[in-house]
Amino acid sequence: MLRAGIVGLPNVGKSTLFNALTAQSSALAANYPFATIEPNVGVVSVPDERLEPLARLVKTEKIVPATVEFLDIAGLVRGASKGEGLGNQFLANIRETDTVVQVVRCFEDENIVHVEGAVDPVRDIETIQIELALADLATVERRREKAQKNLKSGDKSARQELDVLDKIQPALEQGRSARTVVLTDDEKNVARNFFLLTTKPTIYAANVEESALADLDNNSMVNAVREIAAKEAAECVVICAQLEADLVALPPEERVDYLKSLNVDTSGVDQLIKSAYHLLGLMSFLTAGEKEVRAWTIPQGTRAQTAAGTIHSDIERGFIRAEIVSYNDLIAAGSYATAREKGLLRLEGKDYIMQEGDVVHFRFNV
Fold first, then answer.
1. Helix (H, G, I), strand (E, B) or coil at 206
2. Residue 234's closest CA among 178, 154, 290, 289?
3. CA 300 to each of CA 15, 118, 139: distance values in angstroms, whole numbers, following the listed order
4. Are 98 and 3 in contact, with CB atoms under 8 Å apart?
5. What is the Cα–Cα distance from 61 to 46, expressed in whole angstroms?
6. pLDDT tens digit string along 190-218?
């Protein structure tokens, strides 16, 4: 399961966002630094508008969506790379995640203290980036020392490691993320073995006040975060964490109406969940029968036999064929029988590359 860590300075709205994501109030939202010490963990459904129509078509009430695990991690302060605040614990928690959601405060509120004394999204992003870069720099220096020893003993791979470290280290010394360094595919494979914090795919969640949602294009704080995200090839999602937490208490239809009254098309939380899901190149294939409709998570480019193993290793081992119909074709046909009559169902072999929204029945024998 994809694990996304929610990070940021203290009092930027991390725990409020976590509560909205998990539709609960398990995370303590408080107006003082380090209200969160141990990371709260919540499993969140990936919004998928295809599941309910598919469930109606096959006449089942059980729907199992794809999921993302979110961790609400303690706030970081300057000096975290040297153990300040809860720095060591913060960095260790980030290492356990696949992707990072950095919440950036983009609103003024005199009743909510800012750890730096004033709101400045660019400075806040730089603070966290520098601390993560310093932590990575220490890792790189240790890897360099080890690679140099291995090179002397005749290890050919050590030369390749050193070449990649030579590219990454200058960026870290400048306080930049390792993910901003241009590497070849082979070099990226080498860099993965370094387990650097700043190589993790990142989403910037610009946390605004409710009144700002109607005119985001003219919001200087949001635009500053968007600019940073664009330079890093990261993603930026605008949210109002407090609004999203309040929406949890409303029935689904009232949530939609309330968002429309604010001239907002979709929930920022929904956008964030989908961004976290797709940021790592993940996709869903679907299974649909009388027992349940389910979305299964696989990397883009996965072959059919490997996808079968997502359901059960026996299905992968005994794979014969995959019977596949696209979601749109199946819904348009109205039933499996009609889709089959129209030739919309097809049989694919083990090397078929799965596509987003494939509705699949695997044939197997063990």
1. strand
2. 178
3. 31, 42, 30
4. yes
5. 18
6. 998 998 989 888 999 999 998 888 888 88
Q: What is the DSSP code (8-state) at residue 83? A: T
**DSSP-assigned letter for residue 71:** E
Q: Following DSSP, what letter does each residue of 85-142 receive, concatenated? A: TTHHHHHHHHHT-SEEEEEEE----TTS--TTSS--HHHHHHHHHHHHHHHHHHHHHH
Q: For position 82, what pLDDT does the model report? A: 56
Q: Which residues, 6 or more positions from 175, have their beta carbon under 8 angstroms from its beta carbon?
A: 126, 129, 130, 133
SS3 265: coil
Residue 150, Cβ density class (10 Å: 0-12 exposed, 13-18 middle, ≥19 buried): middle
Q: What is the pLDDT of residues 236-284, one digit of tens each?
A: 999 998 888 888 878 877 888 888 888 777 788 888 888 887 788 889 9
Gyration radius from the chain CA atoms: 23
Amino acid making up residue 274: K
Structure token pair of residue 141: 């220096």
Return the DSSP state at 246: H
Contacts of 351 (CB under 8 A, 6+ apart): 303, 304, 305
How many other CB atoms are there within 10 angstroms of residue 231's CB atom? 10
- Cα–Cα distance for residue pair 53/126, rounded to 1 Å: 45
pTM (2 decimals)?
0.80
